[in-house]
Fold this sequence. Notes:
By secondary structure, this protein is α/β, with parallel strands linked by helices. The chain has 14 helices and 17 strands. Residues about 1-65 and about 465-493 have low confidence and may be disordered.
Amino acid sequence: MRDRALGSRNTRVSTHASAARAQVWRAALTSAALALAACLVTGLVTGPAFAADAPAAAPPAANAPGPHYAPLSNGLAQTPPMGWITWLQFAEDINEPLILQTIDAMVANGMRDAGYVYVNLDDGWQRYKGERSKHPLEFDPVKFPHGIKYLADYAHSKGMKLGIYSGPGESTCAGYTGSAGHEVQDAAMFASWGIDHLKYDSCCSHKDAPQPVVEGVFRTMSKALIATKRPIVLNACHCGWVNTWEWAAGVGANHWRIGQDISDDFDYPGNREKYYFDVLDLIDRGVGLEKYAGPGHWNDYDMLIVGLDGKSPWLVGAGASNVEYRTHFSMWSMLDSPLLVGADVRHLDADSLETLTNKEIIALNQDALGKPATRVRDDGLVQVFAKELSDGSWAVALLNRGSATADVTIAPRKDLQLEWDRYGVRDLWKHKDMGPYDIPFTTEVISHEARILRLWKAPEPAAGKSASAAVPGAAAGQAPGAAPLVAERTSDH
Ligand code: GLA
C-alpha cells in the first residue's frame, strides 16, 4: 500500500478551487492554523493533558503478547452506522431548521426506512471559537435556539438518532473549543442531551502527535462515554494517520477514518490541493485494511459524496457522474464503511435517491457477518473485490477504473476459491437474476462502473430436469426460471 505522507490542509494551495472557495477556506484555515499554533505554544499537543491516558513511557516490546491495555468496547455498531452528516454540504453553516427539516426529509423520502437513522452535527455547532482553556463548550444559541437536546428529542420521536462532534484538542479543525481536559464533563453533557454518536476529531489538534498520544486521547474519551452508560457510537477521526486501524478498535472506537478528507471527485490526478483523497484514492488506501474491521469496529472511508454534484459551497471537487457516484456507494457498501450521506437530502435528485436507497446494495453493507470485501484480483484498470455474506452467498464488485468499456470475467472457482459447480448470478443494480452457470461469467463493465453481482451456489438439477437457482438474501421472492448452462455475455447497459 502506498503510504501517503501528504501535506496538511494548513499548507495546501487553492489552484484548483474557485476563487470563492479559496477565500472561504483561507478564512477557515487561518483559524485552524491559529488554533494549532496556540496548542503548540501552550505545549498541549505533547503536554500532560494528552498524556493522561497514554501508555507507560516504555512501550511493550514489539513481540509482547496481547494489547498493553485491556481493550475497551461499548458493544455498539454491530453493522456500519448509516445516516447523514452536516459537513460536506454545509460546513459551519448549520442551524436548527436545517436539522429538523433534514430529519423530516429522511422520513419522507424513505432514507430512514432504508437504514439511515443517524443525523449528525459536525463541526460548527459550538458557541465559541478559540481555546477550551479560555471558553466553555456550549451550543451556539443563535444557530440552535432550543439547544441540542431539543434536536435529539425530535430525532428520537421520529425513530432516528442524533450525533455530535468534538475533538481532543484545545480547539477543533474549524477553530471551535474542543474537549481537552474536559472529556468526562463533555461526555456527560452529550449523554444528558441524548446524543447517540460522537465524531471525535484529532486531525488538526494532534496532526503531528505520536501514535501513543493519539491512542491515549481516544481512549480517554471512549472511557468517558462508556462511563455515561448511554450508548454513544464513537468515530475516531484521525485522518488515517499513525495506522489508526491497528489500535482504534482496542480503545473502543466503532469506526475510524482511514484517510484524509474526501473531495467531491471520483478520480482526480494526484491529491486535490495536495490533501484530499478522491474515491479511487480511498479504495486504494483501504486495500489490506479489511482484516482490522468487523462487527462493532469499521474502517471509515469518509462521508458519502453522492448527490453533491460539485455544488457544495465549501467542499472542493468538480463532482462525479451518476455512474461514478453509484460505484462510490457500491464500494463503500462492499467495504463495510459507515454510510454517512453528505448531500442536502431535502433536495436530492431522483438518481441520487435511487442510488442511496438501493436496498440490495445496503444489504451488503449491513450483512450480519460483517466481513468487508477484499480485492481478489488486480488486472490494472480492472479490479475484482469479493465479500462473503452470512447466507453463504458472495457479493462481487467488478470495478472498471479505465476510460473504456471492458469485458470482465468472474469465475467462482478461480477468483473466490469456491467449490461451486453451478452458480446463480444476480445483478444488484439491475435487480435481475441470471443463470445458473457452470462456466465463468463474462459481462461488460463501462468506464468507472462497478458492476455489483451476488453469486450463490445453485443446486444440481434433478435427473431429467433443468434447475432453478435458489435466490439468497435480498433477492428472495424473485427466483429465476431455469436458464441454459452457458455463460452470458451481457451488454444491456
Ligand atoms: C476535519 C475532518 C472533517 C471535518 C472537519 C471539521 O477536517 O476530517 O471530516 O470534520 O475537520 O472541521
